[in-house]
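Hi L.,

You mentioned the student needs an example of a multi-chain input paired with its predicted structure. This one should do, with 625 residues in total across all chains.
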Amino acid sequence: MSTTAAASTTTAAAELHDCRKTFAETLIELAETDPRTVAVCNDSVGSSHLKEFQQRFPDRLVNVGIAEQLMVGAGAGLANGGRVPFVCAAAPFLTGRALEQIKADVAYSRTNVKLCAMSPGFAYGQLGPTHHGVEDFAWLRTLPEMVVLAPADPAETREALLWAHQYDGPVYLRIGRTKVPDLAPHVPFEAGRAACLRDGRDITLIGVGTTVSAALAASAKLAAEGVDARVLNFSTVKPLDEEALLAAAVETGRIITVEEANVHGGLGSAVAEFLAAREPVPMKLLGVRDEFTPTGSPAFLAEYFGIDAEAIARAARELTGAGQGAAA
Amino acid sequence: MVLAPVPSATARLAGLRHELRAAPPAERAARLRELAYSIRRSDLEMISRAGQGHIGGDFSAADIVTVLYFAVLDVRPEEPEWAERDRFVLSKGHAAGILYSALSHAGFFPEAELTTFMEPLSPLNGHPNRRKVPGVETNTGPLGHGFPVAVGMAVAAKLDGSHRRTCVLTGDGELQEGSNWEAAMSASQQRLGRLTVIVDRNRFQQGAATEETSGLDPLDAKWASFGFDVRTVDGHDYEALYQALSEERSLDDRPLCLIADTIKGKGVSFIEDRVEWHHKVPTAEQTAAAFEELTAR
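Structure written out for the whole complex:
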């Protein structure tokens, strides 16, 4: 598989990581320190990287078989019994197949369930749209009580998982499979707060998950052309960091959101909904549009939907009216 | 929590449970019957006042719910989240009325609260909400949710090495939801011996007989083939329900399925076994007549 679009535009030497590995290591750490910790999965022991967890804690891996409705319901039941269940499955099946269980058994019942959506977005690129998890932000964001997290690199994945474990309530976590670089600078994860990775005055680029490193790479390109872009990592999609959005709108006047998800109802929609009422500014929402994703590698799909570094820089030039004569 | 327990309810319920368990079968049945008809009367009044509800399915389940709360389940109304409580899940959440009536009779909250059933902002929603009603374990309403959640509860108990029990009551039409069979496969695979699924087999769903819609028979053979111990009882025979529900079972037994043959609307002659009473609401005259029948029986 080719490297991701995000990675191809960062420094050539950047090492790339599959965040599932960090997820698996952190979950074992949580199981070691807290006996309440259990993993629940739908036969996804391999794809959720739970093999070592299973070897170390065989009783605490509940594999219900290929049965997502049961998987989420059983997670709620385990929480009722005082356990802290991490319910792991590929993003499209966890969310799509078990959405009503997520609504009734987890969100509405407000159970202490951690929904771990593995390999979200375009991670299963060539397998086609049935396997792409791009509707999750839109679906999950409408559920009261639900916290929606999408960490962007291994360090943030670990911190988000530790936070989710100690938080008493429903959490949805996107755990990336598409390889990403370590973000620089590292800003410690804080639930509900966007991390400012680069300050800027001309425009704000808002990334989430895999698109954060792409937004950073775009900001480097733009800086060379005299466009000073702020870069925010919105690893908490819900609740929104309204303070960071207001500051971005007031101080930079233009906003681009970039997500490996459908923009209709996704992070872009969330940002636009908030700003439309409070501080409307020109925006562009980059992500999946109203079409089923075609087949292609994750990098191809990032380019196709215009969420790679080049496309983000292009969108920023259009929105700022800058660099019209400059080479792309 | 919006609703507060009745003072001393825990001791009162425990005392009653011990008395009923120790009583001779005929006396036990008579006392359970008295409670079940009082619970039905409260439910009738709730539905009549609210102008909404599911009287047919409430009354088919009334005797099962009564036996559970007063003779079987070890629960504490004043500590509804006591960790070692037995769990009961009403998967057929539209029968919320009979659950609320039973919970209030058990002292989880005062019976006077029943007058708010389905009022605007009442905690007593048309389907149960665990965050508003003490004693409710999980929010149900959409069908096919309770049994999967009960599987997780039973796994949690087994991991703890705890003998607390998990009982889930499903409708029979509800078994058309595939999620139940996902749960059945896994419950059997995991040998959840302290898990009991009770099927309220009243043979009707919303608009027609189950067998005319998407038939379930032979239901006992279905459950047996999924690896369950299966018992079929008369769902209005208090002693049969009590014996089946209090059967001693080990943590590693096969899970139990209790098929309770019931009559939809049981207890009121003109409501019994008529499909239209799934969610029909009695008129004032019908309410009076029904109340009289429920008192005379």
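You could point out the following to them. Chain B touches chain A through 33 residues (CB under 8 Å). The longest strand of chain B covers residues 195-201.

Best wishes,
N.
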